[in-house]
TrEMBL record:
<feature type="domain" description="Aminoglycoside phosphotransferase">
    <location>
        <begin position="43"/>
        <end position="281"/>
    </location>
</feature>
<dbReference type="GO" id="GO:0005737">
    <property type="term" value="C:cytoplasm"/>
</dbReference>
<dbReference type="InterPro" id="IPR050249">
    <property type="entry name" value="Pseudomonas-type_ThrB"/>
</dbReference>
<dbReference type="Pfam" id="PF01636">
    <property type="entry name" value="APH"/>
</dbReference>
<keyword id="KW-0963">Cytoplasm</keyword>
<dbReference type="InterPro" id="IPR002575">
    <property type="entry name" value="Aminoglycoside_PTrfase"/>
</dbReference>
<comment type="function">
    <text>Catalyzes the GTP-dependent phosphorylation of 5-hydroxy-L-lysine.</text>
</comment>
<keyword id="KW-0418">Kinase</keyword>
<protein>
    <recommendedName>
        <fullName>Hydroxylysine kinase</fullName>
        <ecNumber>2.7.1.81</ecNumber>
    </recommendedName>
</protein>
<comment type="similarity">
    <text>Belongs to the aminoglycoside phosphotransferase family.</text>
</comment>
<keyword id="KW-0808">Transferase</keyword>
<dbReference type="GO" id="GO:0047992">
    <property type="term" value="F:hydroxylysine kinase activity"/>
</dbReference>
<dbReference type="InterPro" id="IPR011009">
    <property type="entry name" value="Kinase-like_dom_sf"/>
</dbReference>
Length: 382
């Protein structure tokens, strides 16, 4: 999603390659000829969807790719980008629908490239990733089945990585003060001024204080794992395996954007996933129960983890909303994309506070229990 220290964004770290420069880069670095190109929305990296022209001597390539140009700050940590890419390749082998890199002409998974002239030249890490087709969760009306499957996917992904993935650079996923790690909700105090003085700020201040009082002291009791960290409604792709438009049956066909990966806790991934699945839902408070049921079919939560879930979800809402407001001040031209979550996010966060933790948890936990009583099958509808 974004670089770890957003204060450095004031130096304007986002890449600004033109389509012509991107096409030339792909041909020079990867040896492929682009027949069509379009820009894709991005937080502070730059992405292009490419169609490739087949030519003699180039047999081992796909028809479509995403050219991913990492912002110049994150590009200074090639070890982290390399391990994220290795994780994508590992998960693909393990049967998860993740993209894989097309190697450079030199046989590498990425290349450091420059843009600019003279003293303003900046360097960006470039990868060419296989294009994953599908519709984003944000574009559909979710149902209990797909919410359950997404929860299950989140748990399987973290469990598989934590138990099976080994790499010399895995230590780079210990990211300390990385702003998007859910443990770092208290760091929002550095950016909360972007909200101005209003009721939104008051709610976020409450979240931060409760997080300090009730979550931080208990972090050591949560089960640690590797988190994807950004399973949002734009990073999960779906396809429909039914011909009935009235009753579509969706399945996950793609997992995008591994740039927020870090060491965290199983309950962090669950809270992040619940929060993002609430964004476009017509009944957001009911979403958590279905996602929780899917997650717990793979990784059941402890009592302490369950007790923390409500505050963790409000913490992620606060992270997303505060950082978006702050970053949009730096990149006003990208405000529409940056503020996607804010369109409904504030309403959902305020609603959670109005209804209260006890009532929201009752909805979530009773729904999850109903799945257990029904042998993992959906007991109700959203």
């Amino acid at each position: 999603m974004s670089s770890g220290n957003i204060q450095k964004s004031q130096t304007l770290i986002k890449p600004a390659f033109s389509e012509k420069e991107a096409i030339e880069l792909v041909e020079r670095v990867f040896g492929l000829k682009v027949s069509a190109i379009r820009s894709l929305p991005s937080y502070d990296d730059q992405n292009f969807h490419l169609h490739i022209s087949r030519s003699e001597g180039i047999a081992d390539c796909a028809d479509e790719y995403v050219l991913k140009i990492t912002n110049c700050e994150d590009s200074q940590n090639p070890e982290l980008i390399a391990v994220q890419t290795q994780i994508m390749m590992f998960l693909n082998v393990e049967g998860f629908p993740s993209a894989t890199p097309h190697l450079t002409k030199d046989g590498n998974i990425m290349s450091l490239e420059s843009l600019g002239t003279g003293s303003v030249t900046k360097k960006y890490m470039v990868r060419l990733l296989t294009y994953l087709p599908g519709m984003t969760v944000a574009t559909i009306s979710t149902n209990p089945h797909i919410l359950y499957e997404i929860g299950k996917l989140a748990a399987r992904l973290d469990k598989t990585l934590t138990e099976k993935f080994h790499h010399p650079s895995i230590k780079s996923l210990h990211r300390g003060k990385f702003i998007w790690n859910l443990a770092n909700v208290p760091l929002l105090e550095q950016y909360i001024h972007a909200l101005g003085q209003n009721s939104y700020r008051e709610v976020v201040e409450q979240v931060i204080q409760q997080f300090k009082d009730k979550i931080v002291p208990k972090l050591r009791n949560f089960r640690a794992c590797i988190n994807h960290g950004d399973l949002n409604d734009h990073n999960i792709l779906l396809d429909s395996n039914t011909t009935s438009p009235e009753n579509p049956q969706y399945r996950v066909s793609g997992i995008l954007d591994f740039s927020d990966m870090s060491y965290g806790y199983y309950v962090f991934e669950l809270a992040i996933t619940i929060m993002y699945m609430m964004i476009e839902s017509k009944d957001p408070l009911s979403v958590g129960g279905h996602v929780l049921a899917g997650f717990e079919s793979v990784v059941p939560l402890s009592t302490e983890e369950r007790d923390a879930l409500f505050l963790l979800v409000t913490g992620r809402f606060s992270q997303s909303l505060v950082i978006a407001s702050y970053t949009s001040l730096l990149y006003p031209e990208n405000k529409e994309y940056l503020m996607i979550t804010a369109k409904t996010g504030w309403k959902h966060l305020l609603r959670m506070f109005d209804v209260g933790q006890e009532a929201v948890e009752k909805i979530w936990f009773e729904t999850a229990k109903a799945y257990m009583n029904n042998e993992g099958n959906c007991p109700c509808t959203v």
